[in-house]
Amino acid sequence: HHARSGVTGVQAAAHILTSYGLRTRIGVARGRLADCYWPTTDTVVLSERVYHGGGVAALAIAAHEAGHALQARRWYLPGRWSLALVPLANTGVALCLWVWLLGLILESQPLLLTAAGCFGFYVLFLVFELWCEIDASRRAVRELVAHRLIETAEARVARRVLRAAFATYAAGFAGSMLALGFF
User: pLDDT tens for residues 58-101?
Assistant: First the structure.
């Protein structure tokens, strides 16, 4: 479904970002599902289909990633907490399997609990990530409509696309919770 405004994903993201005075870079990446925001370089990366696409879905995804840039600039607390947890989450995920295996081999309950704790940091990180994803999606639709990049009737399609994308994060979180329960 092409947006009636005729803009592309990159144009939508650029419009939203510049309307807030941000100079966030926007880059293009090959492949699918490459859309993301890199806070360390202040760069929104869009897949080729989203970057060049003029569909409501492309605009929704581009605006969603721009929403993450807005979160970073506006000191959105769950985003700050999420970023602060990244090193602990990465370390926890890297260590938990090995500590868990060692705990099984040695039949050591403290090691097994340590493995669960390590993985717990990752799950805590995911909680804040989910919170950020919900906020970025809400911002995206609101900004697209407010800047007349999509019509109000097209907002329903944008919400559906972003809900489906959120479902992938929710499924990952549910799987992680099951793994934590297993630990």
Answer: 999 999 999 999 998 877 777 778 878 888 888 888 888 899 89
pLDDT score for 79:
76
For 149, half-sphere exposure in the C-beta direction (CA atoms, 13 angstrom radius) is: 29
Cβ atoms within 10 Å, residue 69? 24
**100-129 in b/e burial notation, b at 16+ Cβ within 10 A?**
beebeeeeeeebbebbbebbbbbbbbbbbb
Q: Which residues are paired to 45 by β-bridges? A: 27, 36
Task: Compute CA distances 173 → 20, 96, 101, 105, whole Å.
Answer: 32, 17, 23, 28
| pLDDT exceeds cutoff 90 at 159 | yes
Question: Could you give the maximum distance between any two Cα atoms of the chain, in Å?
Answer: 64
